[in-house]
Amino acid sequence: MSETMAPLRKTALNAVHRAAKSKMVDFGGWDMPVDCCGLVAEHMAVRTAVGVFDVSHMGDIQLRGPGSLAAVQQLCMNDASKLAVGQAHYSAMLYPNGTFVDDVVVHKLSDNDYLIVINAGTREKDVQWVRSQIGHMPGVHVNDYSDYYTQLAIQGPRAAETLQKLTSVDLSGIKNYWFTWGQVCGLHNVMIARTGYTGEDGFEIYIPSDEPTSARVWGEVLAAGAEFGILACGLGARNTLRLEAAMALYGHEISDTINVFEAGLGRYAKLDKGEFVGRDALVKVQEEGGPKRKLVGLEMIERGIGRDGYPVFALDGKRIGEITSGSPSPFLKKNIALAYVPVGYDALDTEVAVEIRGQMVKAKVVPTPFYKRAKKST
Amino acid sequence: MAYPAAYRYTKEHEWIQVDGKIGTVGITDYAQDSLGDIVFVDLPRVGDTIEAGKSFGSVESVKAVSDLFAPVSGTVTAVNDELKDAPERINSDANTTWMLKVELSDAKQVDGLLTAADYEKFTSEETGH
Q: Which fold has domain A2-58+148-244?
């Protein structure tokens, strides 16, 4: 119980969330809103209009100096040499055995300056890992900037219109997974990234983490989005949104016991870019014919909701795997899950059974992502 | 939140309204608010027996699943079938959206349940405000 004895950490918006009567939960040691005005309403706001999330609990590691690219290349599996200044990409830090330290988004701030956005629950572990792996490398400084920023995610088809009212930057000029700096809510040099974790168009902005500024910007975003029906959103909706989009969550789809190929993230591992931590293990997995189990999408066929940790069985009764994330899908109105199953059970339409509170309930393998937003016509 | 004075309550957040030998069972406003958007209710069938303090089914919101605990022992005489297609009614009005009707096997069990005032005190202690 020692972990729960530690005082919960708070973002600069904690008082704002509490004043708004959001339901709070302990998320990886952080006192975070899980439900602001109803999970389903929040989820639908992001799918059909716009929602705003406080994601200040995410961590930010800056690598700076002439050796920073070499350090990023050693630490992360994607090929950061392909990034232009102002561009970001999904990547991951791996252990030597090819499993996950964490998944990350790498931003190239300048030729000698990279920002790695990491998960909240793994912040300390990640920072220690980075220092242990590249601390000896020449020409690179590691800075933990996690507490410097209040990070807001403004997500949904009306996110651009909402944020555009608060900034002089032409947001239409920022492509998906690119970012820039500009004035937002009167603040100078705010990083504005077209990134997110909802499967929807949207932006993440990084503002100073003092409480008055954070509260002011949060309020201005809500006011700007009011005409579109913006809702403040909690981690509950964040989870169902990312699950519909089949985006991995650390501790669920990815962890220190799951390798990159099992997780279906091999396209982000650039084995030909040169040495990086975990590369040799991934090469070996490939040489041995690929992963033995795979992450698949499941849709419940029979009545029941498969949830995190529920066991998955073949129809002959053999236990074959486990659900990593499962929930009703508020947008699709189906019960969906991600699960690890052995190769051989991963083909589309394969029927399996999920044990739900002692009962076997049929599900089938379906394509992921469960939800994909329509491509913009403009 | 309002808890009808005519009902009795469990610490697991069920209510029961007793009329003669028949008890009507639902979950409290506090329970529906804690659960959030309810999407699924799993209930026993007419003729099944339930036992005081034991699970008789479950209620699921988007984010969680919770057991339902029987306030009393008895035989199920009716099940609210509307909840199959419209479980969200519990969110809209937990006090009148019933789940089961039960013929009590021991009416005295009701005396051991919380009154509305006791229950309100209990929930305020649980949440700390």
A: Gyrase A; domain 2 (3.30.1360)
ipTM (interface predicted TM)? 0.84
Statement: residue A377 has pLDDT above 60: no
- Contacting residues of B for A40, CB less than 8 Å apart: 37, 62
Q: Does domain A59-144 have CATH number 3.90.550.10?
A: no
Which of B63, B65, B66 to probe the A interface (max A CBs under 10 A)?
Answer: B63
Distance CA A150, CA A209 (A): 5
Residues of chain B under the 50 pLDDT cut: 129
What CATH architecture does domain A292-366 belong to? Beta Barrel (2.40)
Which residues in chain B (4-23) have CB-CB distances under 8 A to chain A?
A: none
Among the partner-chain residues B36, B37, B65, the one whose CB lies closest to the CB of A307 is B65
pLDDT in tens, A275-333: 999 999 999 999 999 999 999 999 999 999 999 999 999 999 999 999 999 999 999 99
Nearest to B62 among A23, A304, A328 (CB): A328
Alpha carbon distance A89, B53 (integer Å): 53
String of DSSP letters for A137-174: STT-EEEE-TTTEEEEEEESTTHHHHHHTTBSS-GGGP
Q: Express each pLDDT in A32-90 by its tens digit.
A: 999 999 999 999 999 999 999 999 999 999 999 999 999 999 999 999 999 999 999 99
Determine the 3-state secondary structure of B124 from DSSP: helix
Contact B62 A38 (CB under 8 A): no
> For residue B85, what are the domain limits?
12-107
